[in-house]
Each structure stands twice: as C-alpha cells, then as structure tokens.
Amino acid sequence: MKHRMFRWMWAVSLMTAGILLSGCNPKDAGVSPTADSSQFVTLAEAVPDAILEIRYYGTYNFVGARIDGYLQPTALLTRVAADSLRAVSNDVMAQGYRLKIYDAYRPQTGVDHFVRWAADVNDTLMKQYFYPDLDKSVLFEQDYIMAKSGHTRGSTVDLTLFDMQTEKELDMGGTFDWFGPESHPDFCGDPQTGTYTGDNSKSPAGRSITAQQFANRMILREAMLRHGFKPLSSEWWHFTLRDEPFPDTYFTFPVRQIE
C-alpha cells in the first residue's frame, strides 16, 4: 500500500510540473507543438458514409463533461489517414456495415483536460459507466491516462461498426472507453488468428464476451488492418495509420469544421 501511494504521489507531482512520464516517448521532449491544420480534413467530407458520435463534444464520456478543445461535434484526420479510412469504409459497406466514429484528432488541450481530471481522485461522476472495477488512483500508473496521446498526431481514430440491417451498433461486448482488460483485443480470444477462447481470467469482476461479440470485434480489426492501420493492444476500438505522416508532431488547434 505504501509503495502504491508513493507511485501515485510521484506521478501527480510530475504532472504538476508538466512532465508526467507515464506513456511519454523520450523523443517527445524535443518536439514543438504546432497549430497548423493545413494537412487535415473533415471526416464528414472525406468519409461521407461514416456516422459521427463525438463523445468528447458531449457529456457521455468518462469525464462527464465536454472536453477542452472540442468546439464542434466533428472529426478531423490527416489527409492520408482519411484516405485510408475511406477505403475501410468502402470495405465494411460491402459487408453491410458503416463506420461509427467516436474520436479522431484530439488537440493537446483535450489530453491536458484528461490529465487534470485523473489527478482529481474525488471526481468519480462516471465511474459506474466506464471504470467500475478500478480505483481512480491507478489510472496513471496503469497507463489509462497519459500526458501524450497518439490522437494528437492526427492519424489515430476510435471507432466501431454500425449494422445497416439492424440499424444498431454492432455488439462488441463492451462500451467505448471502458477502462479494463475487457477492452483488450485479446480478451476471450486470439486476435492474431481470430479464434475465440472464452478465457476471461483477466477480468477482475469475471466479466466475459460471447463468441459473436469477439467475432464482431475481429470484423472491425481485420478491415482496419487491411487498409494500413495498426491496432492498440489495450483498446479494440483504437487504430493508428501505420505510416502516419506526423509521427513526431503534436497538434494544438481545436476540433472544429475545417473551411
């Protein structure tokens, strides 16, 4: 217990100094932020078949408030990432689905908002919906909240699939932004082979997903991988363009329609 408290106090003190180390790549230290949005496009225009549900513009998210830097309920990506996502969209449309976007480019001000929220351990407004199995004090040490995000480089997207036949989201067995091993792509299965195992031993509350829910996650994953995106080991909904154009750049302009 003393060891955990020390780690928590250490993380908070670094955050206060503006140097939270958890999740930071050493090369980020020499990177200057930029507000240049000239290489970005609006997803509603670049991928017109995608459905937008921008969670951080509204209040249904793990913070429970609109996130700093989200001025309009829109989604932005770098041009090259948007072109690849358009190919994904065409792919899943042929299978009877549409992409549903929760988040794409995220300004650094939004990431900073997450860090401030995580430091306030008494703010647990949305705990029952997004992290019921976790004490909020572990969010830094377990890398759920970090001072830098791939989203801020502009080629990362959080998304799911919408079933055009049922007119509902495809059942992925868990909600976007759920903090826990249940969100891992390898939960209850092997994403490399697409094999369902049913192994839920990593779930602290004994939660599970069905074979169909695992298969649904694989439909999204395989389509994203086919068109140049790479997955994240801790979130089934999170993908980054493998050859992202700005791997060392963090952008600061707000989320709003690009004219």
Structure write-up:
With 259 residues, the protein is an alpha+beta fold. The protein has a domain at 2-14 and 37-178: Muramoyl-pentapeptide Carboxypeptidase, domain 2 (2-Layer Sandwich), CATH 3.30.1380.10. 26% of the residues lie in helices and 15% in strands. The strands form 3 sheets. Strands 2, 4, 5, 6, 9 and 10 form a 6-stranded mixed sheet that branches. Helix 3 packs across helix 6 (211-226). The longest helix is centred in the middle third of the chain and has 16 residues, at 79-94. It is globular, with a radius of gyration of 18 Å. The N and C termini lie far apart (53 Å).
- Indicate the radius of gyration in whole angstroms: 18 Å
* CATH class membership of the domain at 2-14 and 37-178: Alpha Beta
Give the beta-strand count.
Answer: 10
Biggest sheet record: 6 strands, mixed
What share of residues are in beta strands?
15-25%
- Please tell me the overall pLDDT: 91
Order of helices and strands: HEHEEHEHHEEEEHEE
